[in-house]
Amino acid sequence: MPSSHYDSACLPDILPLYYRQLFPFAQYYRWLNYGGVQKNYFQNREFSFTLKDDIYVRYQSFSTQNELEKEMQKMNPYKVDIGAVYSHRPNQHNTVKSGSFQALEKELVFDIDMTDYDDVRSCCSAADICPKCWTLMTIAIRILDRALREDFGFQHLLWVYSGRRGVHCWVCDEAARKLSVAARSAVAEYLSLVKGGEETVKKVVLTDPIHPFIRVSLTVVKSYFSQYALQEQNILSSKESVDKVLALPSHVRKELLQHFQNEKNPEKRWELLEELAKEKRASVKKGHHFEKEIMLQYCYPRLDVNVSKGVNHLLKSPFSIHPKTGRISVPIDLRELDKFDPFAVPTISLICEELDRPRTGEEEEKEDTKEKENEKDAAERRKIRDYKRTSLAKYVKYFDQFLEGMARSWKGELLKKSDLQKDF
Description:
- The chain is α+β, with helices and mostly antiparallel strands.
- The protein has 16 helices and 8 strands.
- Helix 1 crosses helix 13, helix 4 (131-151) packs antiparallel against helix 7 and helix 7 (212-232) crosses helix 11 (290-299).
């Protein structure tokens, strides 16, 4: 088994190999071209490259897949970000009359970063993550994916691991790409429950009647809460962590502390807290949802709302490398979400090592039989064979499946267009 040890100093040496032989350009272009349904959609898309020594190059745009490939292989970016589809080609933005260069469309995107949970996780802080706190990302994906599909009717959601400490969601439906800033803000606000900065102690406040979306989200949180919060994060074990929890329902703090004096088991302590909330609700007709507020404050997704609101906001591209960890930003297959392990995501070092393994006789034989293919096809096929020989293969395969689902909707749009043209 090759070592997956990653040394950031080696990045300049291995990036050329990654972009030359492993980056899935064909699928990438297929995604961002959206079936060619809208003219110049790919050509007017902004790409941004971060080069060595944090040199930042914005407003890159390309006419074809081949042009994008050549430029990425020439510049070997440390990081790639994707921006909006503009009214004009981004690489010509300086030649366009002031005010007429406008961001028109972009996928509706969500960015969830583990650092935003630092006040409620005890295992790690800042950029560090571990299997214990990764559960927060699993909960976030479960809640947001369901809401975006069932409450808003979106279908084409691409969830991507950031490569270090978070996840991104790209909502790729045509209706999502055309949303105004006001509509994006409304969706982001609908999905936001945890509010207030570091100074705010109580960040979730529920009022009667509880919105159906919050009720459904709570069922997701409940399924993870005991294992994650009570056992792994020990939120009701030490005096310090108990004080932190009981600062939220401060009006019943004394009462709960008395109960907790005779009960040290975290699970039983939580049961006592839930029972008290039920008693309070029975005696007072409104409010007293403090057990739900605690669960949501500790587990509910924390969105960077500004990322979702802006049409022209840049977001890290799928299959980009994270320069600090070397991990690749890979799509996440939601059918295996609970098994997803960020530490098992391949690093660029690992897949480049895997590529260096000697080929089997069978692979070489197949290659010889295809020597007569024209050069371009041969190069494309070789690239497909190359990533298939690495740990990147299963992630590209899932990306392919996602694109197949989207292609069915493009075909529908193209058929509608051709029917409309026939009507003339």
